Amino acid sequence: MGYFREATTKAASEIHRVTRRLLRVSDSDRASPYDRISKALASEEQTSGQEEYTYDVALITDVRFSGGTSASNAQEIKIQHRMGMRTAIFHAPSHLLDRRNDFISASLRECLELGYADLVPTAAKVFAPITIVRHPTVALSVQSLPKMLRTEQLVLVINHPARRAGGQIDYDLGVVSRNLDNQFGVQAKLCPIGPVIAAACQRPGAEMIPLDELWLNVFDVPPYKRAGNALSSHITIGRHSRDHTDKWPGDAQTIRNAYPDDENIKINVLGGAKTPRKLLGSLPNNWTVYRYDEISVNEFLSKIDVYVYFHHEDWVEAFGRAVAEAILRGIPTILPPTFEPLFKDACLYCRPENVLQLIQKLRSNPNWREQVGLNGRRSMIAHFGPEQHSVRLRNLRNPT
After folding, report:
1. CA–CA separation, 348 and 366 (whole Å)
2. CA–CA separation, 39 vs 3, rounded Å?
3. In the 8-state DSSP scheme, what is residue 169?
4. How confident is the model at residue 242 (pLDDT cuts 50, 70, 90)?
5. 1 confidence band (pLDDT: 50, 70, 90)
6. How many angstroms separate the Cα of 255 from the Cα of each of 260, 311, 347?
7. Is 35 helix (H, G, I), strand (E, B) or coil?
8. Which domains does the chain have, with CATH numbers?
């Protein structure tokens, strides 16, 4: 049941009050069996003078993040749990999230309820040999960071570009790095989650800060989705992303090229489509759109034959977790060439105007379609399987 001992009734009441203040959980959620949370120490006054509690890994993140950030956090926590490692989660708010969005993400909530991790107040005395900070914006303010956390190895996972497609600056990597170094007295390893975000960190005009090795996302291996025989009437293209201007091509023609309005093609979109609707005027008749989380990712992927993802030409896609999930299922995936340094031979790459040609080839050649999907799946397992996370944690625990 973790290292935290049972708290007194008074302390437990305070713990739940602090948790509700941070996460604004609903009345129904408050009744959920948050045994882990109830064992945490609740405030500075209650933690002062208390003994120091030990975890194997501390995770500092904004627990409200959804999408790839939350899924990556949860995946690593599950792997750590399977390794017999205990994880403490510290909530550090990011300015990117609306203050009204105060609900803990579903994937982290599941980890807490299953006992894979503890949610720990920032004032608790904790020692964790390894600390992982995911999302640079959570360390923009020293006041948001854990106050009494001791650690030996500190990793900043750079999973978001500093500059948005429209030129907006979300953080300064130099400021973030210095905040972490000063707060914990340990030099943080600055680890981009892919080669594209690594290159973006070294953009002209940016402070030149040495980066460490990549901290690639990892995945459990899902069941294989067999491509099947020749398609009788149509082929279904799928894409899954947040409905944000950064995540869609910036003009109508590029959207039409990447997601063709063709009688033999169906387009399935998970995550909403207000952005393309605004650019196109109206959505083509061959589109089916699902809101974010309207159906599960597994159900969505089971409905498609090919995955196609193109984003705004000025956006830096740090990784593409939704893309990886499709490849791992054995679904042939078409991407812009900017993804090739990351996914290598796991995908097909082309410009938007060449998508239709590739789709037609995949539709007419089922053997090739299946081989593309199978090769992609094998490549992903080799480079992004769960063992990769186990190896890097062991390397951090036992540095040479």
Report:
1. 15
2. 9
3. B
4. confident
5. very low
6. 8, 9, 20
7. helix
8. 9-217+389-395 (no CATH), 235-384 (3.40.50.2000)
